[in-house]
Model the fold of this input.
Amino acid sequence: MIQIQHLEKKFGKLTVLKDVNINIKRGEVISVIGPSGTGKSTLLRCLNLLEWPTGGSVTVDGEELLSADKVDAPKLRRKMGMVFQSFNLFDHLSVLENVCIGPIKLLGMSKVEATRRAMRLLKMVGMAEKARSMPAELSGGQKQRAAIARCLSMNPEIILFDEPTSALDPTMVSEVLSVIRTLAKQGMTMVIVTHEMSFARRVSTRVLYMDQGVIYEEGTPEEIFDNPRRERTRVFVNSIRDFHFAIHSEDYDLYAFESELRNFCNKYFLSEETVQHAVQLAEKILQHIPLSEGEVNLVFRYAEKTGNLALEVLMPAELEPVLTSIPEPELTELKNSCSALHEEIVKRSGKQVRMIKLFIHSEK
Ligand code: ADP
Ligand code: MG
Done:
């Protein structure tokens, strides 16, 4: 359906995309992941010509876009719907009008017909009740679902999503992801730039890892997330699954810690109980560590395969053993509230550190 060959995009002297090659088949769901600033948005924008590529070719349904004398950009954009991080709804129009305006103005559809179709699409994204609401009255998740309905109203052949959930409150991410998952089940062709790794794993047929302007590695979700072949992919995929929090003194910001941990857990659809449990366990351990004698690092690791959430508490190797210093009733209580608990000296980045490791049970 779409062939991208040797695509290049420069902004002045800055080369943002270097030699990008992708073939997209009908019905594929492709997730694009990678560090920020590597050109993921630019790639999507080059596909629907919001940016003009500086080299290479893009062929859509056999039609070469870049060398053609006259490219019908509006027609192309109709084929490729785009959903943005920031919704881009028309604020002065109701939800229903937002979904009707394209078909009426650009497809020449009658108002009655456009309204009928719009209501069907709004129903599909769970927004029929809000048809008469203005965008300002909606939550972020509702705005994004309205934006998806608007995109669908143009009958696109492919939808490009640019981080559709990254402007949302964590509580609203899953309602938008559910809608995208429904579209995938219906066979919609999609390219999704996302930071939601567990979602990317579940929904995609193929994952592209972008780094520094190239597709650095691509494969099935299992290949990319479980067995990445190249070093930078491995580092990225692992860093996304870990949550790090550094503590420099006894006055560390407990609220920041809790809310960042909650965001991390939300990403993997872990329950509120798991968050609370993890916070309590971390706090109990921290009470027994002298926090003024060197940095203490907390690393939460989530293993999607097993559903286990583990916590590593890393501290300077010189500190006295911690677990043996905890008085008996409390130590037993601690041991009972997690599925494993041990302490050892390990090597991290070439340095010896003392580590307490515990497994926080998760419900999956
Ligand atoms: P990503 O979506 O992966 O975070 P972007 O595609 O947004 O990355 O940006 C890649 C690089 O291109 C960044 O260094 C960014 O500053 C630069 N860039 C993006 N758009 C423009 C532009 N219109 N003019 C100049 N530089 C840009
Ligand atoms: Mg981006």
Remarks:
- The longest strand covers residues 14-24.
